[in-house]
Specification:
The chain has 394 residues and is mostly helical. The protein has helices at residues 2-28, 36-68, 76-98, 101-118, 136-165, 173-201, 252-276, 280-284, 293-327, 335-356, 362-385; strands spanning 205-210, 216-221, 227-228, 233-234, 244-245.
Length: 394
């Protein structure tokens, strides 16, 4: 019963975020003076619907927690939905402080994409493995995800800044990279689309392979196997023959999913370009013209000031304490540990150049967006491709 309620609440949150995105679009589009009252009504409606959605999202989290008996952050579905929830929570707090509707036009669609991405992973509740049976699961993971969500707001503000100041009518490297950022978001939508398609068709193909410990293991693909596991052998009749075989430390099944996502996302991006007859950045630019650049720069910077220490606590300090308790060592150069350190060093460098060299405005915006790309690489690529101690997050 609780699990069913939890799923319903998550779906409700998803729909509310979608509706709120449309309302925020109405709040920021147009420049005429007489439209101010209409924009204000749209803004109020959008924030009310966003709060309703966030409340439902928290309800999902609490009811799933009550059902499982532990914080629902132990696998990819749970962690990613928690991340989407925290992104919206961070946005609502900053909106209360700064009242920037265009921030919702970026934050909410990203939260929608994150939740849709999470829904492609198994939702079943399974017993925790021994290493996860600790209160540090809740402390470490929740603190990390809250820190990453606050840092994400910095990137959203930076992206709005770039959309406003970059001239997309002229060919330049800035225009290319701005469009590439939007392309990557479409690729995540492509992941959702291609995974949904193959799930709907019930595609399955089983293989045996040799894992990194030299042991025989089995794996089932749910998309045609473009990449084969180390020393694979097909167990399903007429299974797709992988195009290439990779070393044991790479999860070929997940790499295959990434490649399919890139293919689907590229096709979807091409279709949007043909339909809209302009770059995605050019489509979004009219929605960000009413924002003020100094305010966007302040939001971006303050988000890093708040998010960085929270991330430091969760991803490094609490993580090392738990690692000592679970594996009798504080640091082991596991891929997730290494990438957490890279993320921390990046944001430390961000604050250094901001404070000591005065990197503000456009340069700071680019740094904020790149920081979010590093976080998403950790969430998607490291989790999906590289095998490590954190690979329980299936």
């Amino acid at each position: 019963m609780l699990l069913s309620i939890s799923s319903t609440l998550l779906f409700t949150a998803f729909i509310c975020y979608l509706v709120a995105t449309l309302l925020f679009g109405g709040a920021v589009h147009g420049k005429k003076e007489q439209e101010k009252r209409s924009h204000l009504r749209f803004s109020k409606a959008a924030i009310v619907v966003s709060i309703i959605g966030f409340t439902a999202n928290v309800g999902y989290f609490v009811t799933r927690w009550l059902y499982t008996g532990h914080a629902p952050v132990s696998n990819m579905f749970e962690f990613t939905t928690a991340f989407g929830m925290c992104v919206v929570g961070a946005f609502l707090i900053l909106y209360a402080l700064y009242r920037v509707p265009s921030l919702g036009l970026i934050a909410l669609p990203v939260a929608i994409i994150i939740i849709a991405y999470a829904s492609m992973f198994p939702r079943e509740v399974a017993p925790l493995i021994p290493a996860l049976k600790s209160y540090w699961l809740t402390i470490h993971v929740l603190t990390t995800v809250i820190g990453e969500a606050i840092l994400a707001i910095s990137a959203f503000s930076g992206l709005i800044y770039l959309l406003k100041v970059i001239d997309v009518s002229k060919r330049s490297m800035e225009r290319f990279w701005l469009e590439f950022i939007l392309y990557t978001l479409v690729v995540v939508i492509g992941f959702v689309a291609i995974t949904s398609y193959f799930n709907a068709t019930g595609y399955e193909a089983s293989y045996t392979y040799v894992d990194k410990e030299g042991e025989s293991a089995a794996i089932t693909y749910h998309t045609p196997a473009l990449i084969g596991m180390h020393q694979y052998d097909a167990q399903t009749t007429e299974a797709f023959e992988p195009l290439v075989e990779v070393p044991a430390w790479i999860n070929a099944k997940k790499l295959t999913t990434v490649i399919w996502s890139l293919l689907a996302g590229t096709v979807l991006y091409g279709a949007l370009r043909i339909l809209l007859r302009k770059r995605l950045a050019a489509v979004l630019q009219p929605f960000v013209q009413k924002t003020t650049l100094p305010l966007l720069d302040e939001i971006s910077y303050r988000s890093v000031l708040i998010g960085f220490p929270v991330f430091t606590l969760g991803a490094l300090i609490f993580a090392m304490i738990w690692a000592q308790e679970a594996w009798s060592r504080m640091w082991g150069w596991d891929p997730k540990e290494v990438w957490a350190l890279i993320t921390w060093l990046y944001y430390a460098a961000f604050l250094h150049v901001r404070l000591s060299r005065g990197w503000e405005g456009k340069r700071s915006a680019w740094l904020a967006v790149l920081g979010f790309a590093i976080i998403m690489f950790n969430l998607i690529a490291v989790n999906l491709i590289i095998a490590g101690l954190h690979s329980y997050a299936e």
